[in-house]
Amino acid sequence: MPVKKYMRRGTSKFYFVPTIADESMIPTRTELVLGTQFAEYIAAMDGWTVTNQEIDTPDMADTYDSTIPGSDKADSSSFTFYEDEEDADLEQTFAKGTVGYVVILRKGDIPGNNSMDVFPIRVASQSPQYTADNEAAKFMATCSITSRPLQGAPVPASGTNEVQTVTVTGTPTGGTYTLTFSGQTTANIAYNATASAVQAALEALSNIPTGGVLCAGGPHPGTPITVTFQGGLAGANVPQMTASAGGLTGGTTPTVTVTTTTPGG
What we know:
The structure is a single chain. By secondary structure, this protein is mainly beta. The chain has three helices and 19 strands. It has helices spanning 29-33, 89-93, 195-203; strands at residues 13-17, 36-37, 42-46, 50-56, 67-74, 77-82, 99-105, 114-129, 138-145, 150-154, 163-169, 174-181, 184-185, 189-190, 213-217, 225-229, 242-244, 248-249, 255-262. The protein folds into two domains: 13-54 and 71-154, Roll (Pnp Oxidase, Chain A), CATH 2.30.110; 163-262. Strands 1, 2, 3, 6, 7, 8, 9 and 10 form an eight-stranded antiparallel sheet that branches. Strands 12, 13, 14, 17 and 18 form a five-stranded antiparallel sheet that branches. A four-stranded antiparallel sheet has the order 15-16-11-19, covered by helices on one side. The two termini are 37 Å apart.
């Protein structure tokens, strides 16, 4: 059978996952999805392989220098990242001393495919690169691989996409509200926002990838808006959003509530 060759660039996916509960180091779909995807930041990478330190075993009976397998060791491993001109989120993710897991889906996100590598790491150093050359700004993160990596593991199965519903009550006639997802808060959302406006506000958060949510229903305040987590957040039990209605005006004690109508995972 001919080999179906492919290029890793544009196919392989890279995640930083802070914690993996299972001692096998196989992340759940939720743990994976809630990690940080960083493939688009990678300018270069080095290492991320395991080699065996063979032991020489020559003897007087033969002129052949035989060897036996010795201990395994991971090569020195690093990423060179493009710097974002405005935010420093990835610098914080790979700050010196950070402990977690680099998860590589070699063939892409194919549930059940035995092509996931998991490296337990501690960030040994992080340093910006300075140059007067005509090139994009970069920084390097060097990682110590702290224990034996897991290689060729199955990619976690996809689960149900979570759906949350945002409801405005109290018939406000003006003002704004905000939504907070996993510690990040949207810009102000108008009291009479459409589904597309809520979707745009959520996708502007750095922890929601483009295409990570699909909003339907609305407009507010008369009709609730549903938020389906998909794309890079598909199949995960994501944190429930919270809302702040302090900016709404008019009506009778206007409030905004968020409920999880379809749990993910």
